Every structure is written in structure tokens, then in C-alpha cells.
Amino acid sequence: MQKGLTNLNRYLLEEQRKYPHATGDFTTIIEQIAFASKIISREVNKAGIVNILGKAQSVNVHGEDQQKLDVYSNEKMISAMEHLGKLCAMGSEECEDIVPIPDRYPKGKYVVVFDPLDGSSNIDVNISIGTIFGVYRAVTEGNKGTVEDFLQPGRNLVAAGYVIYGSSTMLVYSAGNGVSGFTLDPSVGEFLLSHENIRIPEKGKIYSFNEANFEKWTPEIQRYVRDLRTKSDRTYTGRYIGSLVADFHRNLLKGGVFAYPGDTSNPKGKLRLLYEAAPLAYIVEKAGGAAIDGINDILDIKPEGIHQRTPLIIGSKHEVELYRKYMKGEA
Ligand code: AHM
Ligand code: MG
After folding, report:
1. Does ligand 1 lie within 6 Å of residue 250's CB atom?
2. Contact at 8 Å (CB) between 55 and 75?
3. Could you give the C-alpha distances from 74 to 99, 150, 161, 243, in angstroms and in order?
4. How far apart are CA 328 and CA 22, in angstroms?
5. For 150-170, how does the pLDDT look when each residue is reduced to its tens digit (9 = 90+)?
6. Any idea where the domains of the chain sit in the sequence?
């Protein structure tokens, strides 16, 4: 497909045509996620301005504004999708319980999970943040989604993606058939195909850990990081933004490993399996990389609760598989 001339909608329609039995339900869902993300992108840009000006005037606005932007993004995602008639429930990092579809709207066979605005504490310093999403087919009968529909391993995802609000806004997406990237052209308000068939390098040169937690890691993790620095056949460089989508996106394009392991304060790590780890694991595997919790593939883990946390080690196959070997005592 022609780069720069193919918009997301055309791409989705052409993909849909490859599956003669496709109903188009799925295309509609992704289109609406993209629509919500354009609105969020606009507000994130505005919030940046408000925060910078706020700071210059010594007005402490950021704490409250960030909070509001999380909530705003959550509302936009929900309102973009609840009326479609394609979903039976939604799950959001911002909501304690699953989000039902209001009675006034028809229901459908999919459920969507999302983190509406990840890394929002970075807004006031102009650092990229993002929206992460995943789509599952519901597994329970009836048209009211239940928690059971969300407690599926990531292997069952039918699509996943993220939007990064960076120097440009980009949507990266896969429905199983390769990973594609679309860049928002604000002059026409469209996501245009900019990155076809994204493949993560087999080996990378970047490692992304919050090394301030070093003393709280197990000896195996400490040894892995130490060996990357000193014993590896490659020269590594450390890059850590502290904004998952931005750290992940960079490593997806350049190669390397991002990790938020468990530590003595948070044995299960910080990141959420359903809204953050599984969708990004789906993307990375479709791009030729890997994602584990240390031992298990992230996509094989069946969540026990919708807000379950998991250690996340994700990126190029070489670095991720090496990490697994360290954890198993095989390296
Ligand atoms: P959030 O969901 O509250 O925004 O937190 C998630 C963020 C991720 O984007 C990032 O990878 C991580 O927290 C960074 O955590 P830390 O500051 O502990 O390194
Ligand atoms: Mg988050």
C-alpha cells in the first residue's frame, strides 16, 4: 500500500476484504479508537501549553490537570465505543469495575481493554505519553459482558495497538497480520500509513530499566543488567523515559529491551497485565520480538483479576530470551 496516501480507514477496509466472512464490526471499533485518540491528542497538546504557561506563572496546576486529562481520555474512549453496537463491555485501567454498555445501545460480541492515558505524570515536562488498547472476542453467552470475558490470556487478543502522543501522534496496530504504523497528519486530521510491516531487530543495543530500583531487584536481575553492561558481545546504552508507550515504541523501532520487573517493594511489578502488558506483548510478538514476566510468555498468562499487575520484560528476542535464561538459572 502506498505510504502517505493510505489512511487508516482504507487500510482497515483492505484488510477486512482479505477475510470474506468479516462483518466489519472490528474495523468500526478500531476506527472509533482512532477517533478518540485524535481528540485525546488535541487535548494532550493543549494541556502541555497550559502546564508550561502555568509553571511560568508559578501556578501549580499540573497535579490537578493531569488527573483531569486521565479522566477526560477515559471518557472519550468510552463514549467513542459504547454506542457502536459491537461491544458487550469495556475494561479500563481508570475504572475499578468493567464498564457496561448502556441499555439504550445495542450490544456486540467484542470487549475492548485500554489504558486511556499511560504515563500522564509526564505531561508537564512535555514527554510523550500514550493510549494502549486490545480487543477480545467475548467468551460468555448473552449480550451483557462479564468479568470472565476479560480474564482471557493475551493469546486470545484479536487486535491490539497503541497511540503515542509524541513529536507527532502515531497509531501502531496489529490484527495479527503484521504490525503497521500510521502518523497523524494534523492538516487533514487523518492517520496516514507511515510504517509498513514493522519488525523489531532480533538483537538491540538499548536497555530500559529504572535503575534506581537496582538494590531492590533479585540477584538474577542485577546480574543480568550488570552483564549487559560489561560482559555482552554488544555495547549497550541505557534509555529510560519512564513512559511505557514511549520506551516501548523506541525499542520496537530500534531494538532492545524494556523491563519493569518485580522488586522488594512491588513483587509483581507495576504494570497491568490486561491494559498494558498484554496488548504490547501482542504487538511485539507480531513484530518478531518477545515479552515475558521473567519466565512465562506474557500472552500465555490468564489474568485472575482485571487489575492484576505483572513484571514485564519486552523487546528484541535476543535480550528477552537471555533474561529468561538468567531467571531460570541457565545463564
Ligand atoms: P501510570 O499508569 O500511572 O501512568 O504508570 C505507568 C508508568 C509507565 O508508563 C512507565 O513505564 C512506568 O509507570 C514508570 O514507572 P517508574 O516511574 O516507577 O519507573
Ligand atoms: Mg498506565
Report:
1. no
2. no
3. 11, 18, 16, 18
4. 42
5. 999 999 999 999 999 999 999
6. 8-195, 206-327
Q: Homologous superfamily of 8-195 in CATH? A: Fructose-1,6-Bisphosphatase, subunit A, domain 1 (3.30.540.10)
What is the Cα–Cα distance from 70 to 34, expressed in whole angstroms?
17
Q: What is the three-class DSSP state of 46?
A: helix
Binding site membership of 305 for ligand 1 (Cβ less than 6 Å): no
Q: How far is CA 195 from CA 99, 175, 240, 276, in A?
A: 33, 15, 23, 22
Domain 206-327 has CATH 3.90.550.10: no
Q: Which residues contact 253 (CB under 8 A, 6 or more apart)?
A: 195, 198, 200
Tally of CA atoms within 13 A in the half-sphere of 66 that contains its CB: 15
Tens-place pLDDT, residues 236-293: 999 999 999 999 999 999 999 999 999 999 999 999 999 999 999 999 999 999 999 9
For ligand 1, pick from 244, 245, 250 the residue to mutate: most ligand atoms within 8 Å of CB: 244
